[in-house]
Amino acid sequence: MNIKHVLKFSFKFVYLTLVCCLSVLHVQSQPKPQDLTGGLSLDHEDWIYKAGEKFFVSGTVKYKGQPVDQVKIKYEIGPEMLPAVIKDSLMTTDGRFKISAGTSHQPGFLRCVINMEYEGKQYREVITAAFDPYAIQPTVKLPNDFMSFWEEAIADNRKLPLDPQMTLLKDRSTDEVDVYEISFQNYKPGSRIYGILCVPKAPGRYPAIFNPPGAGIHKIKGSPETAKEGIITLQIGIHGIPLNMEESEYKKLANTTFKRYRVEGMNDRDTYYFKRVYLGCVRAIDFIYTLPQFDGENIAAMGGSQGGALTLVTTALDSRIKYLAAYAPALSDLTGYIHGRAGGWPHMFKNERFRTPNAIHSLQYYDAVNFAKHIRVPGLYSWGFNDETTPPTTMFSVYNSIGAPKELFIEKIAGHWYSRAQIAKRTSWLQGKLLKKQ
C-alpha cells in the first residue's frame, strides 16, 4: 500500500495538468473561502488515530484573515452522516478554542461540525478524524451469483446491435483534435447512450480514457485538451438523452423525469435504474474498440463520485480495461446505515422505510464494494476525510476490498471536491501508464 499525503509540483506543471484533466472529469471545484474561518486542526497531523485514542479539535477564529475574539462556537461531534453524540458550545479566548472530542472504539470516522455567528451571519466548518481506517470492512454482502448475473446481462445486451453513430462537431474541433457527438444502442432497441468523443487528428493509433459522469443531468463538453496530448477520450451521459439541448432543458429533466433516478426500480435487481447504466458503460468500451484510431490495448477508466463508482463497475466487468482512477466513489457500502454507520450515496438506506428485504438484496448487485472485489488491474484512488456526500467510511470499504495493485492519495481536508494536487496526481498517473509505450 502506497499512501502519499503531499505531492510537490512546480507551478507550471500544476497549471498544465490542471488544464488537461479538468476537461476530462466533471469536477466539483474547491469552494471559495468564507469571510469567517475557524482554522480547524486536529492534534494528529495526518488526522488518523488508533481505536480508543482521544482526539482534540483546535481552532483560531479569523474574519477576513484577522483574529476575532468572543465568538460563540457551537459544536456537534458524532459518526459521519449520523446524529451527533456530543453537542455543546464555548466562547473563544483570544480568538482560540480547543475541544476534547472523544474517541471511537471501532474503525471508522468521527466528525466535528462547528457553527459560528458573526455580524449576523452564520458560518459552518467540519473536520473529521479517522480511526484505524485501513481496518474498515464493508457491511454489504456479496451474492454467490454476482458475476454470473452480470456476465449473463452483458451477453444478452450484446445481442442488440451496437449501431454506432458519429457526428463531427466542427465548432468544437481544433487543428489538432476532432470532436464528435456519438451514440450507440444499449439495453433495448431504440434506447441509446450519447457521448462526446475526442480524437487526435494526427495519423496514428492512440490509447484511450473512458470517463463516465458524475451524478445529475448536465451537458457533456468532452476533453480536447487531453486528446491533444495523444489520448482518445470518451465521456458519456447515462440517461439516454441527446447532448445538444439547451441548458434549461437539462434542468427541467433533472426536476421531473430523472428526479428520482437514483432509487428508481431499486426493489428488483432487474428493474433498478443503474442496470441500464452499468451495461451502457461496458458498451462504451465496445464502442471504443470500433475506432480505427484506438491502439487496441491501452485503455483506462476514470471518474469521480457517481463516475468513480461507474469506473469501478466498468473495470470489474470488462477485463479489457488496463488501469483505473476512481475518486470519491459513490454507491459504496450502501447498507452501512443498517449497521449503525454511514452508507454510500445516494443514502437510500438512511431512510428506514427503504430498508426492505427486496431492496437490500437487489442493491447487493449494484454496490461498488462488490465490484471492487473483482478488480484485477492497477488503480489510483483518492478522496477527502471531510466529504459529506460520499463518506470516507464507505470509500475505505471499497479500498480495503481491492486485492489488485492500488495507490491511495488522501487529501484529508477535501469535502466533495478535488484539489489541484489530486487533479495533478491523477493526470500524471494516467499519462504515465497510458503513454509509457508511446
Structure description:
The protein is an alpha/beta fold. Helix content is 23%, strand content 27%. The protein folds into two domains: 2-30 and 136-434, 3-Layer(aba) Sandwich (Rossmann fold); 36-135, Macroglobulin (MG2) domain (Immunoglobulin-like, Sandwich). It is built from ten helices and 21 strands. Helix 1 (11-22) packs across helix 10 (420-434) and helix 5 packs across helix 6. It starts with a strand and ends with a helix. Residues 1-27 have low confidence and may be disordered.
Q: Tell me the distance between the termini.
A: 28 Å
Instruction: Indicate the CATH architecture of the largest domain.
Output: 3-Layer(aba) Sandwich
Helicity range of the residues?
10-25%
CATH superfamily of the largest domain: Alpha/Beta hydrolase fold, catalytic domain
Count of the separate structural domains: 2
Total DSSP E strands: 21
Number of helices: 10
| Net shape | globular
Strand order of the largest sheet: 1-21-20-19-18-16-17-15-14-13
Report the uncertain regions: 1-27
Estimate the mean pLDDT confidence.
92
| Rg, nearest Å | 22 Å
Based on secondary structure, the structural category is: alpha/beta
